[in-house]
Amino acid sequence: MEITEQVKTIVVIFGATGDLAKRKLFPSIYNLYSKGQLSEKFAVVGIGRRELSQEEFQTNVVKSVGTDNAYTREFSQHFYYHPFDVTNRNSYVDLKGQLVQLDEEYQVEGNRIFYLAMAPEFFGEIAQHLKREGLTNTSGYSRLIIEKPFGHNLPSAQLLNEQISQAFTEDQIYRIDHYLGKEMVQNIEVIRFANAIFEPLWNNRYIANIQITSSEVLGVEDRGGYYEKSGALRDMVQNHMLQMVSLLAMEPPIKLTTDEIRSEKIKVLRAMRPVKETEVHEYFVRGQYSSGEINGERVIGYREENNVSEKSTTETYVAGKILIDNFRWANVPFYIRTGKRMKEKSTKIVVQFKDIPMNLYYNNSEQHLNPNLLVIHIQPMEGITLSLNAKRQGKKIGIAPVKLDYCNNCEDVLNTPEAYEKLLYDCVRGDATNFTHWNEVALSWQFVDPISRIWENDEVTSISTYPAGTMGPDEANVLLAKDDFHWWSLSDSM
Ligand SMILES: NC(=O)C1=CN([C@@H]2O[C@H](COP(=O)(O)OP(=O)(O)OC[C@H]3O[C@@H](n4cnc5c(N)ncnc54)[C@H](OP(=O)(O)O)[C@@H]3O)[C@@H](O)[C@H]2O)C=CC1
Ligand SMILES: O=C1O[C@H](COP(=O)(O)O)[C@@H](O)[C@H](O)[C@H]1O
């Protein structure tokens, strides 16, 4: 039986009237509470500027949880609203008084988590006010959860890191990458290191290439302003995609501790071959969605979205080839692609094994055996598929592809905890393994910065478009074709 560790803490959410709090944070805290992972000894203080009464704030919490009954109302009684402008230093004194009072009332033993669910320009200032006004000085723990984006490029990330490091030490800082909270992303490590059949093959002798796709059907929605400055490279590649690459490529850690795992991931990021500015076009492809059709409905192009320039060259799609210059991965391409308004919502990893040395079954050169594929289905379906070749029934030597499937969430789709729920629980327990260390953030920016520099200086006309509802621009297919590979279809059923 799994032993549930009950935790006591106060969580201060900066940005508690925002979208992230409503859609992800309140429901996640509720799930922890209803599963008994949060004890009765917890309180949440929400910060925002708008005027809301205590009752209105608690009603918003109940609404975001989705069920209004005695239990959820009782849950919402743990929530307190404290409106102020985070740039106003004096307000932190009042907040401190409130935390001292709640600490006593809920007996949380001085444990405090400060969750920055706000625009990044406030991160440094909030951290510094928390320190100067003594809110981080407590008898329990004091931790900072920080949302993405962590900077815009390496220099801005360094500046931000310096600011928050004046108030919090590295082991108090929890930088969220919500992909690291996904069940099947966490499973990568287990699939690799708990199975005798994979690890011996997990290298350049047996693997031909690895493909990671994270495609979305949604467009930029109401985030045009943010996305114009970010684009898919900063929004998805710098963080989620490179994190998946590092989990797939890292060496087995000597122990499953936070430091050991992070240290192995950092080595991968260090070994990634830098893309020279002159080679960006050879290794990376970008695209922008034009109008198209998704699920039978017309959708507008990126340049017609709200808060997007009609001449925008911001990429909504990126495909790239990454090489890792170490003994294990020399010459094995890791292909990544991610984009908005694509054909389907899906995150998948396909490990393509090398062909067998000699094909005994077909002596005509037109017929090939399918390579073995290990597919890790991250979302929406969660599971693993292994594609093999087997004898076609009845025929003398006919070969048919067969699949061994494991579906993680087929029985109960609702049972998989949300990434935010898992990450919050990790933070209250002090487990930073699934958060990104500063060195990971810095190395990731170092890798993507030359690419964005080139793209930002490119001619306006140089961005390819792809119709919404497709799998991206054709150049992404050419990228693999140059190496005699192709993208494996996402619609491969489980
Ligand atoms: N939404 C999402 O799905 C995701 C969001 N993120 C990140 O999370 C963070 C928050 O995003 P999101 O919730 O969407 O943003 P929203 O714009 O929806 O919310 C912003 C919040 O900040 C508060 N706020 C803004 N300025 C001030 C101020 N000067 N003083 C006090 N409060 C202020 C707002 O409160 P009020 O309006 O009451 O002043 C509101 O609660 C961002 O860093 C974003 O990049 C990351 C991944 C996904
Ligand atoms: O961080 C982000 O991730 C989402 C995609 O997350 P997923 O869990 O739905 O795959 C993306 O839509 C967003 O632009 C980006 O900021």
Q: Specify the structural class.
A: alpha/beta
List the ligand species.
NADPH dihydro-nicotinamide-adenine-dinucleotide phosphate, the ligand O=C1O[C@H](COP(=O)(O)O)[C@@H](O)[C@H](O)[C@H]1O
What is the straight-line distance between the termini? 30 Å
Give the tally of β-strands. 17
By CATH reckoning, the class of the largest domain would read: Alpha Beta
CATH architecture of the largest domain: 2-Layer Sandwich
Identify the CATH homologous superfamily of the largest domain. Dihydrodipicolinate Reductase, domain 2
Helical segment tally? 13
Q: What letter string, H or E per element, gives the SSE order?
A: EHEHHEHEHEHEHEHHHEEEEEEEEEHHEH
Strand content: 15-25%
CA-based gyration radius: 24 Å
Protein name: Glucose-6-phosphate 1-dehydrogenase
GO molecular function, one term: NADP binding
Binding site for NADP(+): 15-22, 49, 85-86, 148
EC number: 1.1.1.49
Can you tell me about this structure?
It catalyses: D-glucose 6-phosphate + NADP(+) = 6-phospho-D-glucono-1,5-lactone + NADPH + H(+). Its EC number is 1.1.1.49. One of its GO terms (biological process) is glucose metabolic process. InterPro entries: G6P_DH (IPR001282), G6P_DH_AS (IPR019796), G6P_DH_C (IPR022675), G6P_DH_NAD-bd (IPR022674), NAD(P)-bd_dom_sf (IPR036291). The protein has 494 residues and is of the alpha/beta class. The chain has 2 domains: 7-147, 3-Layer(aba) Sandwich (Rossmann fold), CATH 3.40.50.720; 180-482, Dihydrodipicolinate Reductase, domain 2, CATH 3.30.360. The protein is built from 13 helices and 17 strands. The radius of gyration is 24 Å and the shape is globular.
